[in-house]
Description:
- Helix content is about 40%, strand content about 15%.
- A seven-stranded mixed β-sheet has the order 6-4-5-8-7-3-9. It has a two-stranded antiparallel sheet with strand order 1-2.
- Helix 4 packs across helix 5.
- It has 14 helices and 13 strands.
- A hairpin with a 4-residue loop joins strand 11 (about 295) and strand 12 (about 300-305).
- The longest helix is centred in the C-terminal third of the chain and has 25 residues, at about 355-380.
- It is of the alpha+beta class.
- It has three domains: about 5-105, Winged helix-like DNA-binding domain superfamily/Winged helix DNA-binding domain (Arc Repressor Mutant, subunit A, Orthogonal Bundle), CATH 1.10.10; about 130-335, Alpha-Beta Plaits, CATH 3.30.70.20; about 340-380, no CATH class.
Amino acid sequence: xxxxxxxxxxxxxxxxxxxxxxxxxxxxxxxxxxxxxxxxxxxxxxxxxxxxxxxxxxxxxxxxxxxxxxxxxxxxxxxxxxxxxxxxxxxxxxxxxxxxxxxxxxxxxxxxxxxxxxxxxxxxxxxxxxxxxxxxxxxxxxxxxxxxxxxxxxxxxxxxxxxxxxxxxxxxxxxxxxxxxxxxxxxxxxxxxxxxxxxxxxxxxxxxxxxxxxxxxxxxxxxxxxxxxxxxxxxxxxxxxxxxxxxxxxxxxxxxxxxxxxxxxxxxxxxxxxxxxxxxxxxxxxxxxxxxxxxxxxxxxxxxxxxxxxxxxxxxxxxxxxxxxxxxxxxxxxxxxxxxxxxxxxxxxxxxxxxxxxxxxxxxxxxxxxxxxxxxxxxx
Length: 380
């Protein structure tokens, strides 16, 4: 029988996100750093769908209090996810990205950073090699053309205004680069999570600090001025985090520019346009501001390469002459994100493993949904 880390790696790779094997086995070295053998065995008993401690204990025939203590310890170590919904705590097997790796913020050291960098070409290439994209760009709305219709999933401010709980933490990617001797000049505390649940982070694993809605919205303004790119999960309903990314450190953008992973980050359905008559040719939009190098000087003004532009809008924020606007891409170039995380997962399995496994997953989800609904009725 394969050892527990090989089995856990295979389980993570069966998730829609993936966790590819390598000849070097670096992916196993990473799991050994994160999981003790007993924790890895427990993780293998969890489902990717959320369950309460009581549901897991009943399924594993263990005492509920003992099971909850084990799960809380694993969540604190960043090995599984823990979330609050309807006032209850729920647990489950997390993907490696977005999930276990991000949970290592408080545990990251130089050795872990070196292991991740060694694994990055295989991991990011795999994650970004299959549709639909893992994450997507959310544009800077204050520079979108006034005539354009802004869809709800493209309005980050509106998403956050509907939430009741907010947290902010240091950027894991910038921390990793600092540990590797490559410190970033950008603000570190920029990664936000948010929830419609009241007191969503009470009793949750330590990660950053809680902030108010007003502080969260003010932070959005600051990171836009700084030239950071809003990135979130690639689905429409109830997103729960936004990374504010720089091209020098952050994995989503590096996957595009360094690892040729086109499905790691979906561009926004907008493109920057520069008004040649208004452009002063100062170069503020291009000189280190554009994260993908989509802006260059021409004979008469600066121009945008629409194929490289990701529609983030940070160039427009930098323009003192109001010469840049985000305009909708042509209809045939637009991509609608999956509606929910479940929809994203199903599409991803279809693309990774084919329609047969996709159909099997749909059947499993339907059966698990019935069991979870029955468990909730018993709890209520």
